[in-house]
């Protein structure tokens, strides 16, 4: 994805991704299996990775900052024994990049060790955290995920039936949680169904993952998605389902950005193949914003499928206009604007032979701040393009996300205060066309079960008092200490 100036895993700037989770129950070689699953989910987070396993007696864990291959360098799986486990890849949407925040979190409750892995963003974490801190609780991390641990340990929940369901019911916002004790794994999805979570069968055991590409990678067969509001428990008696929350009155609110950008094209999320949906977006874009041109080029990688769709629908041949450098590092360590702009040139090379003297349609998945899009247009012209027409396979992003996608504030979003003509002028394109909101939901027969708040500001949950800052739960260093 090429959304501006927010780096990503695919070698260009993007809305930052949140996290990915993977779990298995009743399998051999748990550590190696989860390693493969996390490897397939690496695009969902590159700041840190971890695995916790259970052997019926205890919980074992390995966590670290960096890519999956870096954290598990040496592949010493004897450190992760057992027949069940959960794993996590992290991009921080709350909490800074430090080892304490890397998941799975492993905590010792009065009834033993628990491990927790979370994908999403809890909009009421600040209130719950303050409540527990004022009652004397100590938090080890600055992530929103840790509030679930405190709920689980709270006698109000611990001493009563359906403890996990009761605790989950207190949470608001987006979450897919994998929980684990020494002999049991659990998978839960918030009642809106913001993030995807799929169940697979793996030999005589089970697997759960944020995306089906991870199930495929470890050799599991897709069974079904975890339903919104559902808790699925895997133990020695099999797989058991219960519900901790009613569906919201307005219906589910799955994140449409999974389709636009985040999920891998070979995954099926929310019941649809991602590549197939993106090709449809490209076709629809060609119908909504036709133009006379000589070539269609994609901004790789997440623009590839939509560019193919635009080419198929328009009859304009698809060409390679950009070549991605796969070896550019994790550029989120370059937060300054000048660094971000220069990273565009590092990540993508242009192919003048495909562009010289041509009228070019360039298809990208989104525009966030606008600087990266502008630089790309400049580079196409420098390579000899006669005209550059930009086509975006989603509507203008005008509002921040509070559910786990690290979009900037409205004032930093270029479409937050500019109309399409103004954005077109800013990025110096000959024309600019965004996919309409209606077009975005055509493959699903309507917007009914999706969140599209970043496009229209219609948030599915109460967001009053939510700051959106990912360090909102960090301790204020100015705070006066009474000793
Ligand atoms: S606001 Fe946008 S990015 Fe956030 S959950 Fe909703 S659709 Fe996804």
The fraction of residues assigned to DSSP E strands is: 15-25%
Shape: globular
Q: Specify the CATH homologous superfamily of the largest domain.
A: Aminohydrolase, N-terminal nucleophile (Ntn) domain
Instruction: Briefly note the structural class of the backbone.
Output: alpha+beta
User: What is the rounded Rg?
Assistant: 22 Å
Main beta-sheet annotation: 7 strands, antiparallel
- Regarding CATH, which class of the largest domain? Alpha Beta
Number of domains: 2
Task: List each distinct ligand once.
Answer: iron/sulfur cluster
How many helical elements? 17
Just name the CATH architecture of the largest domain. 4-Layer Sandwich
Low-pLDDT sequence parts: 1-15, 330-336
Helix content: 25-40%
CATH third-tier fold name of the largest domain: Glutamine Phosphoribosylpyrophosphate, subunit 1, domain 1
Q: What is the average per-residue confidence, as pLDDT, rounded to a whole number?
A: 89
The strand order across the widest sheet is: 3-2-4-1-10-9-11
The beta-strand count equals 24
Distance between the termini: 50 Å
């Amino acid at each position: 994805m090429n959304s501006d100036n927010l780096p990503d895993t695919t070698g260009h700037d993007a809305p930052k991704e949140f996290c990915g989770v993977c779990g298995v129950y009743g399998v051999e070689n748990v550590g190696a299996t989860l390693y493969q699953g996390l490897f397939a989910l690496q695009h969902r987070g590159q700041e840190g990775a971890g695995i916790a396993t259970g052997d019926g007696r205890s919980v074992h864990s390995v966590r670290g900052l960096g890519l999956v291959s870096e954290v598990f360098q040496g592949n010493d799986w004897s450190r992760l024994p057992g027949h069940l486990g959960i794993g996590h890849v992290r991009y921080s949407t709350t909490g800074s990049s430090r080892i304490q925040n890397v998941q799975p979190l492993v905590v010792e409750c009065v009834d033993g060790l628990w491990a927790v892995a979370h994908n999403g963003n809890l909009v009421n974490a600040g209130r719950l955290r303050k409540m527990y801190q004022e009652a004397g609780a100590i938090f080890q991390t600055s992530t929103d995920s840790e509030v679930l641990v405190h709920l689980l340990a709270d006698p109000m929940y611990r001493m009563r039936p359906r403890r996990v369901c009761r605790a989950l019911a207190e949470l608001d916002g987006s979450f897919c949680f994998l929980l684990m004790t020494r002999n049991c794994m659990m998978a839960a999805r918030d009642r809106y169904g913001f993030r995807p979570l799929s169940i697979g069968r793996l030999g005589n055991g089970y697997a759960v993952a944020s995306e089906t590409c991870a199930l495929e990678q470890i050799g599991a067969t897709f069974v079904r998605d975890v339903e919104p509001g559902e808790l699925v428990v895997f133990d020695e008696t099999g797989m058991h389902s219960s519900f901790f929350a009613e569906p919201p009155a307005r219906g589910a609110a799955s994140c449409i950005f999974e389709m636009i950008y985040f999920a891998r094209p070979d995954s099926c999320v929310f019941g649809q193949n991602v590549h197939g949906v993106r090709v449809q977006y490209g076709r629809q874009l060609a119908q909504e914003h036709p133009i006379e041109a000589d070539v269609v080029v994609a901004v790789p990688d997440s623009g590839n499928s939509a560019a193919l769709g635009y080419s198929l629908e328009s009859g304009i041949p698809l060409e390679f206009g950009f070549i991605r450098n796969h070896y550019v590092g994790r550029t989120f360590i370059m937060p300054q604007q000048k660094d971000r702009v220069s990273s565009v040139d590092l990540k993508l090379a242009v192919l003048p032979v495909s562009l010289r003297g041509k009228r070019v349609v360039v298809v990208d998945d989104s525009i966030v701040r606008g600087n990266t899009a502008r630089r790309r247009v400049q580079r196409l012209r420098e390579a000899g393009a006669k005209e550059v027409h930009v086509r975006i396979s989603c509507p203008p992003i005008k509002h921040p996300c509070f559910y786990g996608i690290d979009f900037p504030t409205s004032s930093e979003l270029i479409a937050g205060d500019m109309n399409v003509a103004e954005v077109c002028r800013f990025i110096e394109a000959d024309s600019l066309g965004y996919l309409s909101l209606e077009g975005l939901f055509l493959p699903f027969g309507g917007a009914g079960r999706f969140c599209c708040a970043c496009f229209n500001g219609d948030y599915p949950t109460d967001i009053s008092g939510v700051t959106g800052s990912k360090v909102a739960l960090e301790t204020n260093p100015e705070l006066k200490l009474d000793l």
